[in-house]
Every structure is written in structure tokens, then in C-alpha cells.
């Protein structure tokens, strides 16, 4: 399973195949548009795919995510098989992560700070104990407010430059730039 995981991660197979499929769909749609706009053409173009058949997450990416989830320790998750009914026929197989701490640990170890923002997150002690089991309690800060806060209590800032004056540009080309390590 780990050889498959390494292959999928290094080859980016799902991303490449999904890109190929997207290009093929674009070409088909362009042909369809040309047939519709040509008044001389007597051929009836095929109807477009219904939205239900075109998932927002490509199937191969879902299969890849499932296979990668299987490399987690067995005590951290379970495989759930659901059988359909009359309203929604079919079978679905899902991986349910029961222990997010191991998956979240690399983020906790590398990040200077982490902000968990959301709606109903109480009891927040569950989040702390499950996501940050090794973090010292004095590093955890909990801020909570009512469901609706006045706009005067909300401030959004963007930073163009870091403390060294270097522009903060987080893109693919700068991913190895050691000067951005000032944020660690």
C-alpha cells in the first residue's frame, strides 16, 4: 500500500488524468457549440451531461484519497460501507477518520500558530484534546464571542511584507525560498 501511496504522490497521476479529462470535455463542448451554431448542419448534437453526472471532485481523486486514507493506522479510522435504498440506489465506501491527531500533527509541529474558526465548536475542549494532544496547555488560547458580533469588533488585515521587509509571495516558484522562513 505504501508503494502505491508513494507512486500516487510523486506521479500526480490523478491530477494529470483529471486534466486530460477536463480538456477532452472542453473539446466535446466546443464541438457541440459549433454544431448548434451551424445553421447548415442537420445533425442533432448530443445533449450536455446532466450536472448529477459531473461531480465537483473527480472520481479518480476520490479513489486516490481513499487509497491514501488506507495507509493510516487501523486504530485511527474505519471503513464504512453504505448500501443504497429506493431513493438513492448504489453502494458507497468511505473512510471515516476517528483520530485526527496523527493527521493534524505535522501541521501543529510546523506552524507558528493555528486558528480554528467556525460556528458551533463547543465544547472546544474536545478540539483541543483531539487536535493538539501534545501541545502545552499554555500555548492554547480560546477566544469566543456571540453568534453575531458588531463590525467594529472585527478586523481583517493583509500583510504585504514580513518583518524583514521581504514581500510575502506564497506561490509555487517561491516554495523553496528560505527567506520566507521568518514566519516560522
UniProtKB/TrEMBL annotation:
Please give the InterPro entries that the UniProt record associates with this protein: DinG/Rad3-like
Q: Where is this region: Disordered?
A: 28-49
Q: Which terms in the Gene Ontology molecular function aspect does this entry carry? A: DNA helicase activity
Identify the domain of life. Eukaryota
Q: Which GO BP terms sit in this record?
A: establishment of sister chromatid cohesion
Q: Which GO terms describe its cellular component?
A: nucleus
User: What is the name listed in the Swiss-Prot or TrEMBL entry for this protein?
Assistant: Uncharacterized protein
Q: Which organism is it from?
A: Rhizopus delemar (strain RA 99-880 / ATCC MYA-4621 / FGSC 9543 / NRRL 43880)
